[in-house]
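User: I've been going back and forth on whether these two constructs are worth ordering. Before I decide, could you fold them both?

Assistant: Sure. I'll take them in the order you sent them. The first construct and its structure tokens:
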Amino acid sequence: MNNKDSCGGTPVGWIPKSTKMEQGMEWVDNYNPPLKDIRYKFNEKEKINKVLKYITSTYDKHYAKGAKQATETIQDAGYLEGFCLGNIIKYAQRYGKKEGEARNHNLMKIIHYAVILMDKEHD
């Protein structure tokens, strides 16, 4: 049973990129648009770029000038998870409350500590 609509044949809605029946042939999915055509509803791509720019800027700050950042020392001591979670909670509670500080600045810090924590989790 090698019908195009069966489990053993060509997936329905897919066409081969090549007409040759060769091993390792790539398939084109006509039902789902390629990822590069994603139209983000909430400007996620621009926001992620801003976050990356913020994270990059932290490496120019005074606390990053030495051979080792404080966060690296905390990581080496085995306290990275608690440190990151504590800072995430701190900046979440501070969100919109500290006079003269933009709300997005707190969000950037929350995201930065979450990204650092992601490295610890190795997922």
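The second construct, handled the same way:
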Amino acid sequence: MTSEIASYVLRVTDLEAAIKFWRDVFGLELLNRSEGEDGAEATLKAAIGGGGVTLVKPKGDDRPVEMGHSIFRQYMHTSDSARLYRHAVRLGYDPTHEPFDVIPSRFNVVKSYTRDPDGYLFDLCEFQGPPGKRMLHNQVDPTDLSDGGAIIATYVGYTAIYVTEMAPAVDFWTRLGAQIVDQMEVSRGYTQITQLRAGPEGVVVQLMARTGTPEAPAAPLDEKAARHASVMPQSGKVEMGTGFQGFRVATDDCSGLYNAVVAGGFRSLKEPAKEGSMIVAKVADPDGYAVEIRQAS
């Protein structure tokens, strides 16, 4: 039984505008697009690898996207954070945070941030260092594919979501076939992180559990400090909001993967059933994140 976290799913208010953002800013390619009774959707992925994103526009749902407290940010691994940031801003997208060096860090990292038209946060993450040591866990090294700097190589990196408790969330994902690729603590020890991946490619899920709240600064933050604080991990109860819709996992055994998850006591949202050319099931983790298990029939 094999599996891969093929994509994560975002509800958008304007499908055309969302596709344009992913294509024009990050250079992702449109893998497929469909429209049915429930609405329209499109899945995109970078040609160089990484995970995929599925954008959905439900029919009749024109509500603004409310982030809730679920997806934290989407890491976009890139060969040049500063250039990618300037490119996004030049196209008219949000100048959320200008490029900066991450200190202290386990890595040599340059980051900057932007947002899409619906307000989803993107971490434009450039790992620096010598070849072979920039990237971990056999992920694609965008710098090796940047054509000597003539192009900005970018792909979908970690998808970071908040969880209430780390252990049951990890159990859920390992039952879906994912393996732990890294664990760490950040934010002065107030945030536990576990990264998991199923298969050689696909989405890397970054689970984030807050274990406390740092003391608030004694004095009000200036504009720059406030902008920086706004893109850092926040405390709070996990709330789905109306934007993030969960994940899609591709497998060669939908029933087997579904049964493994349900046997762990996790919630079934839909038993395996034929849907067109697919066999589809749906489960939820302890915080309510939905995962659709899909098998080509």
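Notes on the second construct follow. The chain has a mean pLDDT of 90. The domain at 3-296 is CATH 3.10.180.10 (2,3-Dihydroxybiphenyl 1,2-Dioxygenase; domain 1).
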